[in-house]
Specification:
Creatine Kinase, Chain A, domain 2, globular, nine-stranded antiparallel sheet, alpha+beta
């Protein structure tokens, strides 16, 4: 794929707090936000609003959205564009619109990767959660602890990728998750719930899933995998065979769960003639027959720090042909002939401070546009080394070494690779787009240290002042 032709988008999450006392915004505040925006050119969704934004009809989803997911964070999603500049122009408009409504209600968004007034405990989760039934199912049936991620906020970078490059891109971003976290972390342990870590996001995702029992394999679907994913088959095995199936359908509409908890492939292969006995998220008993759309909807069920999202030319025409391709050696040609478009969604980075919301998109899009050089960089060390870098990034200063390797030196190389990639994309002023990362590396500091310093000097009032978007 020509990097100059690929589309980009971003999904920016921002904690929402009361301007009066810094408390989290409860669900009723978000409901008022959606009602207000619905009268200002937006169309209502269950947990947000959306509107068409012409200019990228070939995108998987060309719309803009403003939504909320797990808890008291607002998520602003731009329509895909061909440049970081185009994404930035949209994001500025979305921030202005969201800011205007929240300000009327006495609330504000923060450029922070951790919510300063919310603890990752069940009581806070149930008070401030977004009431998605998919998450209720997860907690009740699988012991997924959604309260462990209710207080973190991320920025997702979304970049077009070719079929052949998709597994390599996931491999690259998994390896670089720790190095990116060293320069992008903005999620310190403000309240002392994580042993004083400089970055709580990886630990929160690790605490999210059970470590034993029938759903222990769910742990392989968060963070970075214990064993490196190198091929399409490696990646798809996580979706379809690695653990009991999560939901049939999407987390928002039409989803059911099967009490027998088969893997997804077994769900397809071994369905009773009358269909699987299942339950809707509202608790009603139903029978579900495996269908092509169930295959197409499995891309969201991997919660790793980098994942592939897809658009099918049409739903797979035949479940049996799909299963035959998976059981044989034909799954890659099957997918290549059926998939219309792929994107990589990077999920490891914290929401950035005000004025730097797009620096992670510049980094990730540059790395993917210069994939060969980026892969050469990460291939110098084994996968286990890069996993160690991720662990170190949660506790160690940026000016450190891991297994004798300098983190600042590797970070500088990573940024230089991305800068060359931005030039290949034809982006305006790559040096300026990444200059904030150069500063952090030069000064051997990350936003987490700076956010923690502000909080310790002036408490929550100071944080609300310096981190307000």
């Amino acid at each position: 794929m020509n990097p100059a032709l690929s589309l980009l988008s971003t999904e920016l999450e921002a904690p929402v707090v009361s301007l009066q006392d810094g408390r989290p915004a409860p669900p009723e505040v978000f409901q008022r936000v959606w009602e207000t925006l619905a009268g200002r050119s937006w169309r209502s969704l269950e947990f947000g609003v959306t509107r068409e934004h012409p200019g990228a009809p070939e995108a998987i989803n060309p719309a803009q959205t403003i939504v909320t997911d797990t808890g008291p964070t607002i998520e602003l999603v731009t329509s895909p564009r061909g440049s970081n500049t185009g994404v930035g122009e949209q994001l500025g408009v979305l921030l202005d619109e969201a800011r205007a409504v929240l300000d009327e209600l006495g609330y504000a968004m923060l450029g922070s990767g951790v919510h300063p007034g919310l603890r990752a405990v069940p009581a806070d989760y149930y008070r401030y959660r977004t009431p998605r039934r998919a998450y209720d199912y997860a907690i009740q049936e699988r012991s997924w602890r959604h309260w462990s991620i209710v207080n973190i906020a991320a920025v997702q970078e979304v970049v077009d990728v070719s079929f052949d490059d998709a597994p390599r891109a996931v491999r690259l971003l998994h390896r670089l998750a720790g190095l990116m976290n060293f320069v992008l972390r903005n999620d310190p342990d403000l309240l002392g719930d994580y042993g004083g870590r400089l970055s709580v996001r990886p630990a929160a995702w690790g605490d999210h899933v059970p470590r034993s029992g029938p759903f222990a394999a769910d742990a392989g679907k968060v963070g970075v995998p214990g064993h490196e994913l190198q091929t399409w088959r490696d990646y798809l095995a996580l979706l379809w065979e690695a653990s009991p199936m999560f939901l049939a359908g999407t987390k928002d509409h039409g989803a059911v769960w099967v009490p027998e908890h088969p893997t997804f492939i077994r769900f397809l292969e071994d369905a009773p003639a009358e269909g699987w006995p299942a339950r809707t998220l509202s608790g009603n008993g139903v029978r579900v027959h495996p269908a092509p759309e169930h295959i197409a909807q499995t891309d969201w069920t991997y919660m790793g720090f980098a994942r592939i999202r897809w658009k099918w030319r049409q739903d797979p025409a035949d479940v049996g042909a799909f299963v035959e391709a998976w059981r044989g050696d034909g799954i890659e040609p099957f997918l290549a002939s059926h998939l219309e478009k792929l994107v990589i969604e990077n999920r490891c980075n914290s929401t950035q401070p005000p004025a730097h919301s797009l620096v992670s998109l510049a980094l990730v899009s540059g790395l993917l546009a210069n994939l060969e050089d980026a892969l050469e960089l990460v291939s110098r060390e084994p996968y286990a080394f890069w996993v160690s870098v991720l662990h170190a990034s949660t506790t160690e200063p940026l000016d450190t070494t891991v297994e004798g390797r300098s983190i600042p030196a590797y970070a500088r190389e990573m940024v230089d690779v991305a800068r060359r990639g931005l030039r290949a994309r034809g982006e305006d002023d790559p040096d300026s787009a990444l200059s904030e990362l150069d500063r952090r590396i030069d000064e051997k500091t990350s936003p987490s240290e700076e956010l923690l310093r502000e909080y310790r000097s002036g408490g929550l009032p100071r944080l609300l002042k310096v981190a307000r978007l």
